[in-house]
Write a structure and sequence with these properties.
- The protein is of the alpha/beta class.
- It is elongated.
């Protein structure tokens, strides 16, 4: 009987996820060895401060502040530090020393993934990053492997649990944005500084990764159009609900063939109205889900916990076992499946629908003038609702219009909104949101 090989595992970072990864490596050592074909020995944990309090009790002798020495002596490196540096340099050091790398660093992959992929290819090692998108949900491997014989045409994803929790709170309780954010912070779903989440930056990084795998082309954060949820009001949520919609922050990557813009991929993140019967509309709280449309497989949805120490650690350990098996069995590492270059298209090339809220003068001919502008720009109206408001003091009447358009180019829709703003009967444009799934 051949001796079981031992592989040294270096862990960089011991926050919420890292601590759970370390715990599982220690507690489930026998099961992991059986699955990977090798003993996975946690050789050390690199941290900034070895004395920092942690939720998981771990052997003190494992901790070190010298990450560089740790990665140079490892067979497998798990990077959970976050940020760009020193994570980038340490990953490159690990790769150049022949170690396979598992990372959950979506910001680094979105900014400089191509460099890391190229170095991993040169070294013949595996670079895995399932935990970088949608936490525990196995989505990247299914896109890369299970759907590799198909052609993906569109990906829609709720990939940020913080924003989904906030929007769900606003929808279910009628809360204002600020109050829903405060509740998310109280429960630990949102950071003290929630900018990366609520401005859409976190989702944009994940959108770049999803687009790169789905369309076999390297996309970076610069290729992603990004809008956050800070301007979504309780009134928007209520009006959407009245019209049969729910508002979600979606990451969207889709193939577009446009006469004006040519063929390419649109990658975007923004608040979006979805019909309540759409599968993604039922994703509640801090959960994530990714909805895929493919030519042969049709529609698929992956759903689960998108954050948290233990769920995300599950994705990390899945990548680690896969990389360990590759080291045991031999063969080249797997990083990405780029086969060419498909251009990233600006959001102007996208085809979508708009939800437009207007405060208008309540007088004859207003609806006709608005409809004429829509027609001039080649945009047709699918739904129009009007509510009359009367100021009891001034006795001035105004009307609130809620319009949902049919699908049209983003450029045509944006031009329509600008033209409508110029009408003297328009008091204000109260909201402009995109609509999917209709």
């Amino acid at each position: 009987m051949s001796e079981v090989r031992t592989l040294k595992v270096a862990l960089l970072g011991c926050g919420n996820v890292g601590a759970q990864v370390a715990r599982i490596l220690i507690d489930d050592a026998e099961a992991l060895a059986a699955r990977s074909g090798a003993r996975l020995e946690l050789s050390g944990i690199a941290v900034r401060n070895v004395d920092s309090p942690r939720d998981v009790e771990l052997p003190r002798e494992l901790f070190t502040t010298d990450a560089d020495i740790l990665v140079k002596d490892a067979d497998l490196v798990i990077e959970l530090m976050g940020g760009i540096e020193p994570a980038r340099s340490l990953i490159l050091t690990a790769i150049q020393n022949g170690a396979c790398v598992v990372t959950g660093n979506k910001a680094l992959l979105a900014q400089d993934g191509p460099t890391l992929y190229e170095e991993a290819d040169k070294a013949g090692v595996q670079l895995s990053y399932e935990a970088a998108v949608a936490g525990a949900i196995p989505i990247l491997r299914p896109i890369r492997d299970s759907l590799s014989g198909d052609r993906i045409t569109r990906v829609l994803g709720i990939v940020n649990g913080t924003t989904n929790f906030i929007l769900d709170q606003m929808d279910s309780t009628g809360a204002q944005f600020a109050d829903a954010l405060a509740e998310a912070q109280r429960l630990g779903y949102a950071e003290a500084d929630p900018t990366a989440d609520v401005e859409g930056h976190d989702a944009a990084a994940k959108a770049a990764i999803l687009a790169s795998l789905s369309f076999h082309t390297r996309f970076s954060l610069d290729d992603v159009y990004c809008e956050g949820i800070t301007k979504v009001s309780a009134s928007d949520i209520a009006s959407a609900k009245e019209a049969g919609f729910v508002i979600k922050l979606l990451a969207i990557a889709e193939k577009i063939d446009s006469e004006d813009h040519g063929s390419g991929i649109s990658v975007r993140v923004h608040p979006t109205l979805l019909p309540r019967e759409h599968p993604l509309a039922a994703v509640r709280g801090a959960f994530n889900a990714v909805f895929i449309e493919a030519e042969n497989a049709g529609e698929l949805m992956f759903y689960g916990q998108g954050a948290g120490g233990t769920p995300t650690a599950s994705a990390v350990l899945g990548d680690l076992v896969s990389a360990a098996r590759r080291l045991v069995l031999g063969g080249p590492g797997r990083t990405e499946t780029t086969t060419g270059h498909v251009p990233a298209l600006a959001i102007d090339a996208s085809n979508t629908s708009y939800y437009i809220g207007l405060d208008v003068a309540d007088q004859a001919g207003v609806l006709a003038r608005i409809a004429h502008i829509f027609a001039e720009n080649g945009v047709s109206i699918e739904i129009m609702r009007q509510t009359i408001h009367r100021d009891s003091e001034s006795k001035v009447e105004s009307a609130e219009l809620k319009i949902v358009t049919h699908r049209a180019s983003e450029a045509a829709l944006a031009a329509t909104v600008e033209a409508v703003k110029g009408l003297d009967v328009i008091n204000s444009v109260t909201s402009v949101l995109r609509v999917e799934g209709v």
